Amino acid sequence: MQLITIEDIRAAAERIAGTAVRTPLLPTNLGTPDRPLWVKPESLQPIGAFKIRGAHNAVARLSPEVRERGLVTYSSGNHAQAIAYAAKEFGVPATVVTPADTPRIKIDAARAHGAEVVLVPMAEREARAEAIALETGATLVPPFDHPDVIAGQGTAGLEIAEDMPDVELVLIPVSGGGLAGGIGTAVKALCPKAKVIGVEPALAGDAQAGFRAGAQVHWAPEDRLRTIADGLRSEPSKLTFAHLLRVLDDVVTVTEEEIVEAVRLLARRARLVVEPSGAVAVAAHLNRVEELPAGRTVAVVSGGNIDPARFAEILSS
Amino acid sequence: MQLITIEDIRAAAERIAGTAVRTPLLPTNLGTPDRPLWVKPESLQPIGAFKIRGAHNAVARLSPEVRERGLVTYSSGNHAQAIAYAAKEFGVPATVVTPADTPRIKIDAARAHGAEVVLVPMAEREARAEAIALETGATLVPPFDHPDVIAGQGTAGLEIAEDMPDVELVLIPVSGGGLAGGIGTAVKALCPKAKVIGVEPALAGDAQAGFRAGAQVHWAPEDRLRTIADGLRSEPSKLTFAHLLRVLDDVVTVTEEEIVEAVRLLARRARLVVEPSGAVAVAAHLNRVEELPAGRTVAVVSGGNIDPARFAEILSS
Asked: Start and end of every Tryptophan synthase beta chain-like PALP domain (chains A, B) (predicted)?
């Protein structure tokens, strides 16, 4: 299996310049003297999540003839928006197949970018997207199981390494594994002394189980569905899992209560609107001190697409 | 009267590098094809507002002997935090004199940085700060009425000009006038074709009245106190007003309802926690089309220190 390289990530960075925002590292007061914390706010991307990096890179890599036949994808929401956004930029049609329980804000946003949205039960989404690709000739751009997508997500890691060459710990949400695999590849290439640790909800803790066993462990979709972190209910593919094994030092998990508290603290202390999935790395920093090395820490805040009513409820509680 | 120059701003930029975040321009979906909108999110600064730029620049310019005698200031909140933060960085004591009705979140933050907080009626704050400076030998660093403070705030304008040399319109909140005077100086020097327009609440519309009359107009403090935008209740000094006359093309005002709606939209569409004062420039973009030139627009989002309960209430309404 061919894994992506730092050169793939550098090439992706050139492709996405002008589309993805080069997000800054924000110092926070959520750290301690021996564990100062910066956040990388990917919630500030045009679609509210890092997914624009991988989607744009993958779509830019297609030949114009192939691209014009359209794009299709399956996604819990943020990748769907990213494909819809990339399709609009390139002026081609897009269809997104989305689990029926995806937050309305994510579905509406994909529609607002002009994509056709097909709602299906979560277990059927990949098959339906593949069927649409076969029928229409559209290209299936998967949410993580593709080298161009992984390389695109890795550009966030390139930026971390450029902005803080002496970073000691990078914490990254893990679901399908594209973000952690991509960022980890960049950080390990450029800051080889830094530790890179994935974070996921304990209720969707399949990546930790697999990583610590050294071989992938599958959890039933209905189990992974339990977490509030709707963007972290996928499982890695063979390709992304191989990247995780290569670049991560560990995977830690956080509880639902810790995720909600991190959302609240990020609003109050960092003035960021963050969705539960986007807050897990900060939750780990605050609550898993015994499992994490000390030092200058960057937590990737992966997205900010949360229903306003739920967000208001979290802020008031 | 000596006004600041682009060289003063460039020198300030060197002083504040490493303390202030170099905030990106964030593209939004709040614009229209002929008026695309980017926001400059100063709410993401370490203290949650642009004030860190001017405060750090002014404190860095003091001689070590003077600085060690301590700092004192008066402020509606964000400048108080900025002085407290700068004092902590330089290891010197700070006292902040704050109106008694300042939001608790701002007062607590200044205390958290180790400053002594003195609460007084708004009309007495300047006199009390001056008295403390006389008694203790501390240096009074005013919130806007000082060239070093104005030059520091201007660094945000330098960044706008660097990141978008073809910007056509810059919208900036106006209260004491340091931010608008500083940013306007940078933008007019580097992008002479761009229009620069100040924005304030109609309930504290003294700067518009003065600007359009060509001479300062004074409103009673109790009138300026009516707006929800607690950071925009000051009036320009002679020094800042002279800057506004030189660099602004106009001042427009927005209603309280428009400010609240902009706070709500910035949370939902830009994933930013913004205080009412920070949202006025976006409110103008959305509601004052007839008074604003078209073109590529940057709205400065000046701060994000809003009481969580009030923010949750705005999001839910």
From this structure: 22-303
